[in-house]
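Batch job 17 of 40 flagged for manual review because the log was empty.
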Amino acid sequence: MMTHNLAPIILFVYNRPWHTRQTVKALQDNSLASDSELFIYSDEAKNETAEQAVKEVRKYIHSINDFKTITVVERDKNMGLADSIIDGVTTVVNQYGKVIVLEDDLVTSPHFLKFMNDALDFYQDKKKVWHISGWNYPIPSDGLDEIFLWRVMNCWGWATWSDRWQFFEKDTDSIIKNFSKEDIKSFNLDGAEGFFGQVIANDKQVIDTWAIFWYATIFLKKGLCLNPVKTFVDNIGLDGTGIHCQDESGSDKVIVLASQPVYRFSNKIVESSSAVIRVREYYLGRKKSFYIRIINLISRTLFKKNTTL
């Protein structure tokens, strides 16, 4: 790989100093880090409670080294994660043509950057592939290749190209209008998960997210997303500290990151039915469905409103 053609990395941070340090340290351990340009977007504090932690994060990110260049963008007002990501990704990807994206609670394998850059290079001209994910579900890997293609978008460490991202649109009315009942069923992995419920929750202003709209864009364009079978990313933010994250710190699952890069990609651009079946089984086997989580979220929101009246 020619190191001068590496994709820039964008890291979005807010008010979690410890998580941010873990994310950066893991990224620095990647062999391609020193040849990669890093853009860090720091959102402004939403309220006084977050001010000190935001200041601590900003002090830390100005001390970071071990990358080719580091550009820090400090927001002068609180944009929120969704708007910050949309703006940051659009700005950088339009300049460079491709981008790798991380948030402040994602710990990566030392081979993460190589995998992402290799995949971006290999699939750049294969226009049916819209999105590269660095994370994968804890599914059985027997019988699967090193990677697979499917319809669902994962945002825990991801990459894309400007000619795909240009179609991104955060428009609930348009999505609801353009999705048929059959589309919704397929979008939800034949009922295994309630992804479309996130669109509705955004429409009702219960949540404000961005990723579901990128998935919807890809889905409506009949695009595919690439996943590694062995994950290159672990999310350490599911401890109640993040936005729209449940506290899952009690989980006994041990995430083992990929110990080597992916060596073989495929020119066969079709969805893997075997992988889809295994991910569906993963969702069906979870104790709490998305519907239950969203109902709990709505209940907590209404409770907070009632208690402040």
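Reviewer: the log was empty due to a logging misconfiguration, but the result itself is present. Residues 243-252 have pLDDT under 50 and may be disordered. Unflagging and moving on to job 18.
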